[in-house]
TrEMBL record:
GO MF, one example: oligopeptide transmembrane transporter activity
UniProt protein name: Uncharacterized protein
Pfam families: OPT
GO process annotations (BP): protein transport
Amino acid sequence: IIFSNFFLIVAVAISFIFLLPTGIVAAVTNQSIGLNVITEFVAGVAIPGNPLANVTFKTYGYISQNQALLLISDLKLGHYMKIPPRAMFITQLAGTITAGVINYVTANYLLSSVPNICTQKNPRWTCPNANTFYSASIIWGAIGPVKMFGPGSTYSSLLYGFLIGAIIPIPPWLLMKK
């Protein structure tokens, strides 16, 4: 078993917990906060040495949250344009199903008909997103965050960034409350 139901529940819970805070930030600032590194880190610690499980965890934890925010953003735009919510939702659902089928068919066609696609032998078809996803799975899944950031590793001091990032916003927030 590459990925158990427990990790699926944890990934979806992370996505759900962070949906409201990241949604508020995105709505107010038009800047999205990605959970990709957080989900890769959690999966790398919980499921070490398994790049496929890391990518699966990332997909359910980060991509689902990202897609939910995109849906909410589209529904917000429809609300501003006074389009009925039910019509917006049905249109989004139809668009999602249509795009999913078209993307699947197109990917299968390209992978079967273009020789050496996504390899160095064919520089016109490099697949940068797939390469980035693959690299992240190796770094966070195969190598793992414990080997990269654990005690005695080269980058262990970078973990203090989490502590600093949690503490630094508190004084300005307290000053703002006064």
